[in-house]
Amino acid sequence: MMTPQDEPSATRVAIGNNKGGAKKSTHTVRLAEALAKLGHRVGVVDADPQGNASRRLGWKDNPSNPPLTTSEAIEANAEGVASQVWQPIGWSAEYADRITLMPARYTLENRVSEAGQVGAYRRLAKALKGADRHLDYVLIDCQPSLGHLTQMALAAAHHAVGSTEPEHDSVEGAVRYRDFVATAADDLANPDLTFLGMIVGGYDMRVGGHVGQLNGLRQIFGEEGIWGVIPRRSLITNADEFAQSLSEISDSAEVRAAFENLAQRFVKEIPAR
Ligand SMILES: Nc1ncnc2c1ncn2[C@@H]1O[C@H](COP(=O)(O)OP(=O)(O)O)[C@@H](O)[C@H]1O
Ligand SMILES: [Mg+2]
Is residue 90 part of a domain? Predict the structure, then answer.
C-alpha cells in the first residue's frame, strides 16, 4: 500500500493534543498565517467538528447553499476529492490567498459512526491524494479526542506536532498524543509517521505553575523539541474571537514576531517536500 510518504503531496502535519483548550486551533491558524507570510502555500484541514479554525479564518457557512467540508470529503471515499473542497479563507490580508481551507462544521461528527467500514481510517488520506500537490504545507487541526477523526488525520499526515498550554492536564494530553502517534502509526498503515515537536502557548510566568510546567515540557520533549513558546496575550484571544488576521490588529508586532519565529523554526525542522 502507498503511504503518504510515497506520494507527491504537500508536507502534511497533524496538530494535536488529547485535551481541549490546548491552543491547537490557535496554533494551526497562526502558523498557517505566518507560513503564508513567508511565501508558502498552506492548506488548513479542519478535522474538528467544532469548526473553530474554519471560523477563525473568516470562513462562513451558508445554510442555503452549504459549501463542501471535511465531512463530505471523507464521506465521498474517493481519491483526490479534496480538490473540490479547498476554498478561500475570509481574511483580506495580502497573504490570505496563499491559505486554502477544507472547512468543518458539526456534521463532521456524522463520519465517526462510519469508523467500522473497511478502510475508513484512510479516507482523509484518500481525499487528499493528489489534491495537495500545489501546496507546500497542509496543517490538520485535530479534535481533542484520539478517536476516529484524529486517526484519519494521522493516517494522512507525514508528521505530528503537539500543542499545549504550560498546565498540568494539557501537558499530560500532549504526552498521550505523542505516545498515541508512536503506537498507532503502524496500525494506521503509516509507519513513517513521526512526532516531531511541541508548540507551547498561553505562557505567563505570573501564573502559578507555568514556569515549572515549561521546564517540565523541556525535560519531557527535550530542549530541541520545544519549537516555540507563545506568550499569553489577550490580543490573540481577540484576534481569534473576531476572526481577524494579525495584520488587521494594531500593536501586534510582538505576537506576529512570535509566530513568525515559530514558522521559521517549523520550516527548518520540516522542509516543504
Ligand atoms: N497565546 C495565547 N494567549 C491568550 N489566549 C490564547 C493564546 N492562544 C490561544 N488562546 C485562546 O485560548 C483559547 C483556547 O484555544 P483553542 O485554540 O481554541 O484551543 P483548542 O483548539 O486546543 O481547543 C481560545 O480562546 C484562544 O483564542
Ligand atoms: Mg480547537
Answer: yes
Convert the pLDDT of each residue in 132-146 to its tens digit: 999 999 999 999 999
Decide: 233 in ligand 1 pocket, CB within 6 A. yes
CATH number for position 110 = 3.40.50.300
202 C-beta closer than 6 A to ligand 1: yes
Q: Is residue 3 part of a domain?
A: no
Buried residues in 11-31 as b, exposed as e (16+ CB within 10 A)? bbbbbbbbbeebbbbbbbbbb
Confidence of residue 1 (pLDDT cuts 50, 70, 90): low
pTM of the model: 0.98
Structural domain includes residue 2: no
Residue 31 lies in a domain: yes
> In this predicted model, what pLDDT tens digit does every residue of 80-116 receive, in sequence order?
999 999 999 999 999 999 999 999 999 999 999 999 9
Ligand 1 center to 50 CA (angstroms): 14
pLDDT, the chain, mean: 97
Strands (E), 91-173: 99-102, 137-142, 159-164
Instruction: Indicate if ligand 1 lies below 6 Å from the C-beta of 162.
Output: no
- At residue 233, φ and ψ (nearest 5 deg) are -140, 130
Rounded CA gap, 54 and 34, in Å? 17
Specify the number of domains making up the chain. Answer: 1
Name the nearest CA neighbour of 232 among 261, 207, 262, 265.
Answer: 207
The residue range of the domain holding 194 is: 8-269
